[in-house]
Amino acid sequence: MTVYVDLVFLTNLAVDGTVLLTTAKVRKLRPGRTRIALSAAAGAAYAAIMFLADIPYLYTFGAKVIVSAIMVWIAFGYGGPLRFIRLFGAFYLVNFATLGGVIGISFLLKQTGSPWGSVTVTEQGGCCSIGRCSLGFSRRRSPCPSGCFAAPPPAPKAGNGSRRCWRT
Fold first, then answer.
1. Backbone phi, then psi, for 28, in 5-degree steps?
2. What pTM does this model have?
3. Do the Cβ atoms of 24 and 36 come closer than 8 Å?
């Protein structure tokens, strides 16, 4: 597979800019276009550098949080700890909502196969899929020993036809 770093940069620039503008709208702020552009460019540069430099630290959770905090600081300024935490939380909520919308639209537009085709039910007690893992924690007790609530397993080919590890 070929990855074009310039397209990674431009795509991330557009998405980061959109997320930052949405965060500003959610928090009822009007930051300058230059600040939003610089912040989006910082996020896009981080995404591009991940492909160009072989620095394992760039892939860690801490590095991603630090880069997103720098992006929020560039776009909106500091303004005190409470304001910054609220902006940071709003930034992540907008990011998660955007990701959920993208995943939902991709499942909606998927034309062949089941959306659960990549889900694997493990014997160790979790439901794992490419890109996400559900550990089965719930406030309700699960009748299933693995505690899986994420997705139905593939339909049985033969046997009694029970769905052992799925609740609605």
1. 55, 50
2. 0.63
3. yes
How confident is the model over 110-132, as pLDDT tens digits?
Answer: 766 666 666 666 665 554 444 44
Across the chain, the runs of DSSP E, i.e. the strands, are 120-121, 127-129, 132-134
Q: What is the DSSP letter of 112?
A: S
Q: Give the residue carrying structure tokens 């979790």.
A: 126
**Sequence-ordered list of residues with C-beta below 8 angstroms from that of 15, at least 6 positions apart, any chain:** 98
Enter the tokens of residue 38.
């610089």
| pLDDT of 155 | 56
CA atoms within 13 A on the CB side of 164: 11
Could you tell me which residue, 35 or 164, shows the higher pLDDT? 35
Q: Where are the alpha helices (DSSP H) in 27-77?
A: 33-52, 61-76
Q: d(Cα 88, Cα 97) in Å, to the nearest integer?
A: 14
